[in-house]
User: Which sequence fits this backbone?
């Protein structure tokens, strides 16, 4: 059994499931896409080994209760159109950070909101989180709009929070206060 006793989540159009070894090529296509990674905390991946390492890390993090990294898949559970995560889980403070990305072909259809709605409900109702954070590049309008629709509020700007290539990036802190 993993630390979160996680199996999978279903929504109207999607399944959120554990990452599997054979997701590596699709994961590389996603994290290797410069358009998808434009506002990410690191540059695009270039090697399939990075995808395999991330899948191994996802499994280790799940066992240790550190993070839940999931594939966003169609209802059948086969293939992968995106990924999402609750990571940096701090059990003592019932806090975690939300991460997400979708392949561009699936943008503008409400799929991110659908997937993250299910993940947030799981985080709050099953894991008992009282606060879920997100770190966002201030230029990432699609992500800001999504967070607003999910009930997050912008709490402030963290200066030079990320180093991406030669660039120091300021990052907005957003949060969903799940429970008082
Ligand atoms: C951030 C990201 C996941 C947002 O994806 P998205 O497709 O814009 O978000 P949603 O799936 O919620 O789609 C919402 C849009 O679909 C439209 N839509 C179409 N059909 C819909 C439906 N059935 N239900 C809800 N919305 C629908 C909505 O009108 C909305 O557009 P609007 O905000 O202009 O009104 C995507 O831009 C992405 O992967 N970016 C690259 C990675 C990234 O930056 N991640 C975030 C790092 S902080």
Assistant:
């Amino acid at each position: 059994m993993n630390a979160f006793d996680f199996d999978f989540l279903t929504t109207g159009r999607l399944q959120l499931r554990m990452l599997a070894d054979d997701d590596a090529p699709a994961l590389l296509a996603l994290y290797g896409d410069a358009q998808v990674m434009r506002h990410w905390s690191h540059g695009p991946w270039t090697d399939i080994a990075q995808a395999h390492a991330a899948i191994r890390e996802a499994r280790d993090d799940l066992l240790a209760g550190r993070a839940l990294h999931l594939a966003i898949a169609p209802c059948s559970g086969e293939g992968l159109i995106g990924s999402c995560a609750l990571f940096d889980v701090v059990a003592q403070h019932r806090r975690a950070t939300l991460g997400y990305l979708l392949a561009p072909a699936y943008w503008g259809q409400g799929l991110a909101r659908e997937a993250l709605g299910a993940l947030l409900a799981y985080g709050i109702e099953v894991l008992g989180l009282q606060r879920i954070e997100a770190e966002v590049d201030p230029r990432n309008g699609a992500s800001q709009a999504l967070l607003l629709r999910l009930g997050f509020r912008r709490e402030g700007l963290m200066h030079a929070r990320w180093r991406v290539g030669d660039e120091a990036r300021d990052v907005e802190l957003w949060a969903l206060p799940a429970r008082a």
